[in-house]
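We treat protein structure as text, and this decision shapes the records that our systems exchange. Because each token names a local backbone shape, the row as a whole describes the fold. An entry from our holdings is shown next, in its original layout:
>
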Amino acid sequence: MIKNILFRLACCLFSLGMFAQNSIQLNINHQLGGADFSLNQAAENNLNNYFTVSRLEYYISNITITHDEGTETIIEDLHILVDASESGVLDLGSFPITDVESIRFYIGVDPLVNHDDPAAFPNDHPLAPKFPSMHWGWAAGYRYVALEGKSGSANNPLTMEIHGLGDKNYFETSSIPLTASADNGLVVINLDADYTKLLEDIDVSGGLIVHGEDGAAKACLFSFSTLAFTPTVDIMGTGIEDLINVRAVELYPVPAVEFINLVLTLDDTQKMNISVVNVLGQTVSVVGREDFVQGVNLIKINTADFVN
């Protein structure tokens, strides 16, 4: 009898350990074409169109986290207003999540609440009235993304504005594979967001003003959800087993002074976004997005300006 009670107690403790609550934090590293994002920074899209960004805000909602051998946790009733000019550290709440395997989410506001009155929300709520406004009116709902800036050329800057909205454009990202585990009650999910992808195949060489659900606004939201987000690759702290399609990783010389060589041996051709991240999950340097070939790839990383 005593053994049976002890066995049941052990099972209960084991179950509690498996489903322990951990705080989930999503870190979005704001970027423009492989460089850290900053307002009014010159950039180009894939059509080699010059542009700068003076405002970029967007909503994220209905986040699904796959974890602990395929379990899915959907974070409903959470809307996050992301401002690319501010910190991308987002608190998602506490959940029984220990080892994250992938994440996906929607860009925009859930159609179930998209047509609600912003005044009905508390002042500090992401869906409450904002300035500049993120709401287009009761019938149309919220702006899913507000992208403003200049395009054309540095010598002849023209107005560029894309405000994308509409229930039909509530697009979900693909499942983004990554590795993140609980450490002292905290799970940190690091993603890179390359905002040049918002203008993928959109001609802004002559300026552009589009507010609505169709045309360039729809294309912007679709590219945003399908192309912009990739897992942050921590080349200084990630093991080979954490990298997809990577057969071997080599770093030399160690310790590095002026530079360090990263040698990636891949099983197949792959596009990767490589960043150097410190132990706090902060991006120290963005190496860039590149198409790496099957076999051996040599990347030289300048470390001379790294803070000790």
Observations:
- The longest helix spans residues 2-18.
- Helices lie at 2-18, 216-227.
- The chain has two helices and 20 strands.
- The longest strand covers residues 50-67.
